[in-house]
Amino acid sequence: MNLPASEVTRFMFEELDICGAVVRLSDAWRQMHEARDYPRQVQYLLGEMTAVAAMIGSNFKQPGRLTFQAQGQGALSLLVVDCEDVGGQLLLRGMARCAEELAQTPQSLRDLLGEGHLLFSLHGDAAEPPYQSFVALEGHSIAEIFEGFMSQSAQQPARLWLFADETLATGLFLQTLPPRPLATGAVPPDADGWNRVQQLAATLRAGDLHLPVHTLLSRLFAEETLRVFDPCPVTYYCPRDEGKVRAMLTSLGREEVAAILAEQGEILIRDEICNHEYRFGQHILDELFSPPGQALH
């Protein structure tokens, strides 16, 4: 089976005050989770959250990095996805944190997360603290939680249909827009349009999201006039950054680094969100703290 490219495609209903988006993540999603060995239900929830984060990130007008964190008190304590638009390409990374003894039997999202909240952060200028917004984890699915978040933040009703498995994280998004000013004599938008479009979208099946976007939208909304925009490509981006880790160790000072090495024999740092490990032995003391020009031992 040929998988679709990882991208977000936005569209508008020409005769209705409604916009939407189709998100399909193939290689970007697989690269995020393939080496992590999450329980299947955790993997699928992270996939759904990754899809909706990409959809929101592709339409965000302010520069900066967006972070979404679903934090709870249950066996699944954290889902986090970062996204950043760089030159018209959306860069993604993300992870889940769950208890090792997480039951393999299917559980609801509420059972897995427990009580908690969704945290949205916008990291802009490095000199400024991030903008943050909290909403309670209200809903029985990732889709319901984010419908509430988007409806509250934009003050416009929104709907989401999300699907994820090992190979794809996909979704369909719809949201009403503020009414447009009407020219003299113009016909106002169909008052029942929002209900009709939701009913049509509800016929969506997970397999439909493998179709080319124009084919998918034509099947779902055959009687509607749509304007489809160019897709926004999405890439998983979480490279190793040993320089950043070394800078962090330098900030600790020679004595503290030496104490860690004396106690543990090595320094092991785990970058949880990118799934990288950094190991340093005794040599790191001379490499970080020897005066310039002094020979290393």
Description:
Helix content is 30%, strand content 31%. Strand 12 and strand 13 form a beta hairpin. By secondary structure, it is an alpha+beta fold. The strands form two sheets. Strands 1, 2, 3, 4, 5, 6, 7, 8, 9, 10 and 11 form an eleven-stranded mixed β-sheet that branches. The chain has a two-stranded antiparallel ribbon with strand order 12-13. The longest helix is centred in the first third of the chain and has 18 residues, at 40-57. The protein has helices spanning 27-33, 40-57, 109-113, 142-154, 193-201, 213-220, 242-252, 254-264, 283-289; strands at residues 7-13, 18-25, 65-72, 76-86, 89-98, 116-123, 131-136, 158-164, 169-176, 226-228, 232-236, 267-271, 276-280. The mean pLDDT is 88. It is elongated, with a radius of gyration of 23 Å.
Short overview:
Helices cover 30% and strands 31% of the residues. The protein has 297 residues and is an alpha+beta fold.
Key terms:
297 residues, alpha+beta, Hsp33 domain, CBS domain Like, 11-stranded mixed beta sheet, 9 helices, 13 strands
Oligomeric state of the chains present here? single chain
Helix fraction bin: 25-40%
User: What order do the SSEs take from the amino end to the carboxyl end, as H and E?
Assistant: EEHHEEEHEEHEEHHEEHHEEH
Radius of gyration: 23 Å
First-residue to last-residue Cα separation: 55 Å
CATH topology of the largest domain: Hsp33 domain
Total beta strand runs: 13
Mean pLDDT: 88
How does CATH name the architecture of the largest domain? Answer: 3-Layer(bab) Sandwich
**Sheet bearing the most strands, described?**
11 strands, mixed
Derived from helix and strand composition plus strand pairing, the structural class reads: alpha+beta
Tally of individual helices: 9
